[in-house]
Amino acid sequence: MKMIRMITKRDLTVALVATVATLGVAAAAQQAPPAVQKSTTFDWNDMTSRTTEVGSVRQVIKAPTPTLNELEIHITTLKPGLASHAPHHHPNEELIIIREGTVETLTKGEWKRLGPGSIIFNASNEEHALRNVGTTPATYHVVNWTTGETPK
Question: What CATH code is carried by the domain that includes residue 63?
Answer without folding.
Answer: 2.60.120.10
